[in-house]
Design goal:
single chain; nine-stranded mixed beta sheet; 7 helices
Length: about 240
């Protein structure tokens, strides 16, 4: 029996490519997109996906960001803040820093993704096998705004064969939304213990090699990561 569904937002990075675009904040998670800060969009999206509590991993600017969220959040979902003091390492370390707050089922995403409700409803309905995880992927390759920046995925029979920004053989794109069991934590932990660092991609690749890393088609669902001023401008145009 799966336990409650937890939301996990990774928001520990520097966000340097968006620096200077906002007059109201220097911190990427607080950057407004069509009037609503990125992190609040992500919180709302995880609420759509049925998460009963949300863990937010912070690093750079953690005190200011936590204060801003705590003072402005008007929803009813409990928010738990985790400070990843090793936020200069890879993003898998942020996932591990939240491990104690995650049960057997969690939906993981990044603070800089704008995610449509339809996509999050697909995440809500997906039930991963024990020890496995799934990545929501987009087969609408022609609609990708910045292909160079996108993480490419080769999926066969709804399982990941390979993943990476540089791979040449791919058929879909990583949307940055994962539905996970603790299997991904075990995989990340193994990498961290042997290397002193770990990226999410390494954990995903390990699960893929075990046949435990699935893909879920977002169909017509909308998503856009917001890494650069150009992406911000693009997503605001769509939202308006």
């Amino acid at each position: 029996m799966m336990s409650e569904k937890v939301g996990l937002i990774l928001a520990a990075g520097y966000g340097s490519r968006l620096e200077g675009v906002s007059a109201v904040t220097e911190f990427k998670p607080l950057t407004p997109v069509a009037g609503k800060p990125l992190i609040f969009r992500t919180i709302s999206s995880l609420e759509v996906a049925g998460c009963s509590k949300i863990v937010i991993v912070l690093g750079h600017g953690h005190k200011e960001i936590e204060k801003a969220i705590s003072e402005s959040y008007k929803g009813n979902t409990p928010l738990i803040f985790v400070f990843n003091e090793r936020f200069n390492l890879s993003n898998g370390v942020s996932v591990l820093s939240a491990s104690d707050h995650l049960g057997d089922l969690f939906i993981m995403t990044m603070a800089d993704h704008v995610l449509g409700d339809k996509l999050m409803e697909i995440a809500k309905d997906y039930k991963p096998k024990e020890g496995a995880a799934a990545l929501l992927v987009d087969y609408k390759i022609d609609s990708i705004f910045d292909m160079e920046d996108a993480t490419k995925v080769l999926s066969e029979n709804d399982k990941i064969i390979s993943i990476g920004k540089e791979i040449e053989n791919f058929n879909c794109i990583d949307t940055g939304v994962f539905v996970c069991t603790r299997g991904i934590l075990d995989s990340l932990n193994r990498h961290f213990e042997s290397n002193g660092d770990t990226s999410i991609s390494e954990g995903v690749q390990d699960l893929a090699e075990e046949g435990n890393m699935y893909t879920v088609d977002v169909e017509e669902g909308f998503w856009q990561d917001v890494d650069t001023p150009e992406m911000l401008e693009y997503v605001e145009k769509i939202l308006s």
